[in-house]
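Tokens in:
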């Protein structure tokens, strides 16, 4: 019977030592990957804000014909009723027409400078200021050349969609080694 007790004591002691070692290792390892944030989330994270001044801005015209011309203004802003953008971002405009109507789209900024659009209707990118309000006016001119007598789309309705698309700029950070 004494032999049996001798075998049982080392096994219990071994299990106890393994548990202590596991708890110590887990505690040290988890402390490297766990952290906590103290305070309000708004105190830690910046608030990105960007959009059209009139979010319901739509452009829709019925019964257009060759020779049709129209103009509209819209504004891109980086603030709302409560906040101003707090994140460094770049943005571009994307203008889409819902049909293959042979329309010419011209876009200018508030200084009268032409904004070039790609074939997909994408503009160049601009940096969006943060921590100060920005309101940028854009002027849109839509026209259908009179000489283009393709009456395939005559009498159509034009629906134009403008999207403001932004990406956050991540500044390179130097690692201290």
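Residues out:
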């Amino acid at each position: 019977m004494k032999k049996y007790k001798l075998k049982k004591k080392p096994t219990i002691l071994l299990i106890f030592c393994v548990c202590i070692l596991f708890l110590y290792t887990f505690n040290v390892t988890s402390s490297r990957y766990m952290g906590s944030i103290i305070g309000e989330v708004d105190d830690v994270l910046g608030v990105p804000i960007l959009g059209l001044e009139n979010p319901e801005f739509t452009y829709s015209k019925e019964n257009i014909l060759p020779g049709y011309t129209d103009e509209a203004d819209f504004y891109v802003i980086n603030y709302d009723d409560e906040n101003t953008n707090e994140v460094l971002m770049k943005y571009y405009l994307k203008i889409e027409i819902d049909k293959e109507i042979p329309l010419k789209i011209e876009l200018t900024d508030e200084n009268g400078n032409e904004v070039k659009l790609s074939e997909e209707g994408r503009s160049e990118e601009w940096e969006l200021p943060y921590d100060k309000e920005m309101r940028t006016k854009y002027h849109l001119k839509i026209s259908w050349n009179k000489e283009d007598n393709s009456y395939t789309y005559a009498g159509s309705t034009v629906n134009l969609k403008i999207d403001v698309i932004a990406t956050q700029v991540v500044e390179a950070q130097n690692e201290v080694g």
